[in-house]
User: What shape does this take?
Amino acid sequence: MRIVTLNNETKQDLLAKLLRRSPNQYPEQEKTVAEILANVRERGDEAVLEYTERFDGVRLTPETLRVTEEEFAEAYAQVDAEFLDVLRKASENIRSYHSLQKKTSWFDYREGVILGQKITPVGSVGVYVPGGKAPLSSSLLMNVLPAKVAGVEKISIATPCGRNGKVAPAVLVAAKEAGADTVYKVGGAQAIGAFAYGTQSIPKVDKIVGPGNIYVALAKKAVYGNVGIDSIAGPSEILVLADETANARYVAADLLSQAEHDQLASAILITTSRELAEQVSQEVDRFTEQLSRKDIIRASLENYGYLLVAETMEDAVQAANDIASEHLEILTANPMETMTYIKNAGAIFLGAYASEPLGDYFAGPNHILPTNGTAKFFSPLGVDDFIKKSSIISYNREALAACGRDVIRFAQEEGLTAHANSIAVRMEDIG
Assistant: This one.
């Protein structure tokens, strides 16, 4: 991996390069997505089935689009008992963590006024689960379980199937364990269109969540407003913030854990120790030779892999805040203290034994995280993404009498005489 001295120029160059991975940088794909969405909106099932045959190589019918109970039973028979046990432990950790996020309605009473907030779950959610070479059952748990905790009544899943018309067994078992209601064998932008507009076989939902490829990301961006979405996810990222006390093998292994996702993934070390950077570079080379996705890893590191050497930890922390990485590991002598200076990160992992895959699979916090610097203003997926908040306002006669003329004056200042009149007619009766 390249070792670069951290200064303002190298930091700005890095930030510019990382931003080029944004889903907003793909105009040609946007045209394709717009065409797919328009087709699905107009032709429903017919378009969905055509795109599924074209892109996934499988011919389905409206009757075979939905996973049956027999297929769920078959999936359970194919998943080994050890994995099922791990899946259930992870599910309980995720459910328990998100239960702590749950909020309740509240009311405040004072002198004839009732103010409050009513919490209501989103009515229906469509969860997109990527397929491909590595079907992400973990991603399914991270999307479905917070929705269940929030109280969402209807949760549907869209995920691509194989050429045999089957969905990956681990995904189906995870769907059943998490409590999803329905699984549809459809992927890509056409799945987002089906959830956003509804088809003859796939009901429209209120909100769409879940990561996917660039076509899925752009489709979610395009349908926002017609339905809600969680976020527009970019490629995966890890940033390790370390001093001379860090274990180079641990750092190298953790950088590679994200580099293997895809060629656009970024893996960055910021350290105050050049010696550590050199050791990490050597360990990365050794590990890469042993790993199954070495070609993807090499491309990722060539494009977006950096070992940045900072003069001071203050400089390192500032750079970490500027990058605002999806995953941030802190491997310093006192990681808890270092963490207090971090303002921007999706998930923060503290200490030598809190490696990023714990967050991906097992610990409980959500692994659907802000990417491409959006941790400066976005948060991890959670229960709040599956609820709506309604304001409650109640005034009695005396309370309105006390402030009515102030409200009228404000409305008059804005030239909204009907607003003012709405209060004035009541003030006439109050006297």
